[in-house]
Amino acid sequence: MTYTPTDSIGKTNLVLDLAAQRQRALGANIANIDTPGYRRKDIEFGQYLGVMNSPLETELSIKLGPSAVIESVGSMDIDPAFELAEMQKNALIYTVATRRMSNIVTEMKTVINVGK
């Protein structure tokens, strides 16, 4: 099922999906820190959050291909401190998005209960 994230639920769902994808990419960076030839991977939120009229899966596949992550073209060295800091930032984004989704559900419950 694809959707166009123009409402609060869709937009919040998009952020949650991006945070999950980014966490996987950052985790892979740390897991492959000693792998020869491994290139750092990451997901740039800005390029997706600015285009809220397209489904996430379509946008990811058009811009990045099926891998859904950006491979770094720079240095192959991975700084574990940087990766951990990025994981912390990503965790904050995820926390904010989950709180937003919880608020949306609470608002919907309120509307349903008022309508009874």
What does this molecule look like?
- There is one protein chain.
- By secondary structure, the protein is mainly α.
- The chain has one domain.
- The chain has a two-stranded antiparallel ribbon with strand order 1-2.
- The longest helix is centred in the last third of the chain and has 35 residues.
- It is elongated.
- The chain starts with 7 loop residues before the first helix and ends with a helix.
- About 5% of the residues have low confidence.
Gist of the model:
The protein has 116 residues and is mainly α. It has helices spanning 8-31, 46-49, 56-64, 80-114, and strands at 41-42, 70-71. It has one domain (8-111).
What attributes characterize this protein structure?
single chain; mainly alpha; two-stranded antiparallel ribbon; 2 strands
